[in-house]
Amino acid sequence: MKVSLxxxxxxxxxxxxxTSEEGHQLRLxxxxxxxxxDTHSLSEKQFLSERFKAIRADNSLYRIAPHFSNGxxxxxxxxxxxxxxxxxxxxxxxxxxxxxxxxxxxxxDIRFDFRPxxxxxxxxxKLLLWLADEHRLGPLLFTLLERAWxxxxxxxxxxxxxxxxxxxxxxxxSYKAENRDFPDGxxxxxxxxxxxxxxxxxxxxxxxxxxLPSEPDTEGMVTINTAQLPCFTRFEARLxxxxxxxxxxxxxxxxxxxxxxxxxxxxxxxxxxxxxxEFAVLLQQWPLPQAKSEFKKMVGKNELxxxxxxxxxxxxxxxxIDTPAVWEHxxxxxxxxxxxxxxxxxxxxxxxRREARGLSILGL
Length: 364
Hints:
This protein is α+β, with helices and mostly antiparallel strands. The protein has two domains: 2-263 and 320-363, no CATH class; 267-314. 24% of the residues lie in helices and 29% in strands. Strands 2, 3, 4, 5, 6, 7, 8, 9, 11, 12, 13 and 15 form a twelve-stranded mixed β-sheet that branches. The chain has a two-stranded antiparallel ribbon with strand order 1-14. It has a two-stranded antiparallel sheet with strand order 10-16. Helix 6 (288-299) crosses helix 7. The radius of gyration is 23 Å and the shape is globular. It comes from Serratia aquatilis.
């Protein structure tokens, strides 16, 4: 079977967090982390500029690709210069994107976009220590992490052997959602607005169990035997922080449960929609939150609330996934970020103390 390479995943990078009400295996991880930090002096800015010139020419351990924004063509960037860092094997994904030389004052002097799903904690530590080498950013890297605030964080909850056709999914309090089709026939449901502080993308994935599929064709498709591999649905909560310094990196453990508003409705709802044919038609076209929004335009707010009381609420499954219990494992996901998730080791004396006991920083 041909599927998009983007639908292939390595489930071993996520941690087990229990099971659903029906016994589906659940796994959780941090999937994306974007940080912004500031320099506090002209000398720090000059130091960054000089060291990034050296980093752009350094392909000793990673493949470095420089980017320059001229402000005239392509997507507008908040930074004049940037580098992407990849592993050196063919087709390697981006591990880290760094933008520096802010165009606007409010953007922050430097931005780090981490893709932790492509790295183990050891691999992430190796990357950070490579950046912190005295010939690159040196101790300033950990100073920047201390000052850093989060602008976006993605948490991925994987539900094994569960498919979007098994239930209707919704986001509490949201009346915005959309469907997006994949080239291979898969479908993604986006709950909430992409411009809101939180939205959840729901889409099918295949666990490759650590094996590499065949080389993708020109359309990014690979041939894989899906019958022999576990499938799952990913619920990817994406949190965007709207204000500067709203969430410091060192306070990442304090993020509230991103899946608290995720709702599941039984497909038995279909039988009751015989009495609500207009809503049944809308539900064939839209995800549940958007169908409610369109229904509200047709019948008004009072009739929508009446429909929710008399019909929808009888089909909700509040205990299908115990999201508070799942979120208790978030601290372990942060621990898997290695040095990024352990502020104590941003201090040199703590790293030296650990090494003096014969313990490797890589193994954090």
